[in-house]
Amino acid sequence: MKLLNTYRPLLICALFGLGLIGCKTRQSEEEPKKMAIVVSTLNNPWFVFLAEQAQAKAKELGYESKVFDSQNNTSQETDHFENAIASGYDAILFNPTDADGSIVNVKNATAVGVPVFCMDREVNANGAATSQILSDSYSGCVAIGKYFVETLNKKGKYVEILGMVGDNNTWNRSKGFHSVVDQYADLKMVAQQSADFDRNKAMEVLESILQAQPDIDAVFCGNDAMAMGAYQALVAAGKADHVKVFGFDGAEDVVKSIQDGKIVATGMQFPIVMAQTAATFADQYFKGERKFPKKMPVAVELVKRDNIKNYAAYGKED
After folding, report:
1. Where are the beta strands (DSSP E) in the chain?
2. Among 12, 94, 143, 210, who pairs with 302 as Cys (CB 3.0-4.6 Å)?
3. Where in this chain does the record put each Periplasmic binding protein domain (predicted)?
4. How far is CA 105 from the centre of its chain?
5. Contacts of 52 (CB under 8 A, 6+ apart)
6. What is the pLDDT of residues 114-141, one digit of tens each?
């Protein structure tokens, strides 16, 4: 069994090479093409919205699609790729679970002629995906870092709650933030811990940190789900009125919390742009286009109390 698992990727490639390519060449040119939408998790409203927008755009363009939930598990993701390819899906709109662990799935798909368009998250292999449409997380968190410094008057103790350690967005956001904040000696990070982009984990993480570091002034979170979890922990500890919380995403509950003065700021991503671009690129691929940007950055905008009227959940106010 161990030997079989070791060579499983090679066996898959061989089967794809001998069987699935032949199946695709025999497929009728008139048969409608299909898009598989593989997302890291549907346990986060932001990714639900991303998947829904990709599916809506695929439908608008005239294609059948199906959403696959990887549940933040690369093995589950692998099963989805195998099932999508075996079931005759012609393109995969993809939100990876892991920048390194997801590479093999992308390569297996493109090896049998199924293009892969990454949304929001990337894989660490140049040219593996047909195109990667990604938020400019680094620049977005440079803006958050500047506002963080301004809000704290250049001094204080803070906690950073990181996302998933295998996701490049986690580190791009952290690096962008620290490129600014680390220039101020009186701003001291007293704890840094991962909560996997999960609301409940972030609440538990901050509750634990507060036992050792009760006198903090701010919390910077790598996404909005964790920002809401951190805020819950602060409420439970009776510290929500004076500890400032910063997030990243532009999720609905954080937009409302900024309006209500509970969360200080967030970085607004635009998942509708990433989802619709991925589906549009797949449509263009079906029609013969083969030149796509290997990486397409999507700007992130700083959202705070004084400009919140311009924004809604996951984007701009209509």
Report:
1. 34-39, 64-69, 91-94, 116-119, 131-135, 156-162, 187-194, 218-221, 244-246, 265-268, 295-298, 301-304, 311-312, 315-316
2. 143
3. 36-289
4. 17
5. none
6. 999 999 999 999 999 999 999 999 999 9
Identity of residue 21: I
Residues 184, 168 contacting (CB under 8 angstroms): no
Distance CA 81, CA 40 (A): 12
Q: Say if residues 188 and 217 touch (Cβ distance below 8 Å).
A: no
Dihedral class, residue 250 (left if φ above 0, else alpha if ψ from -120 to 50, else beta): left
Q: Is the dihedral of CA 195, 260, 45, 116 positive or negative?
A: negative
- Return d(Cα 90, Cα 268) in angstroms, integer: 32
Cα torsion 78, 82, 83, 87: sign = positive
| pTM attached to this predicted model | 0.88
Q: Under the phi-then-psi rule, with left for phi > 0, alpha for psi from -120 to 50, and beta for the rest, what region is 300?
A: beta
Question: Does residue 102 contact residue 88 with C-beta atoms inside 8 Å?
Answer: no
User: Cα separation of 170 and 174, whole Å?
Assistant: 6
Instruction: Tokens 């030149």: give the residue.
Output: 291
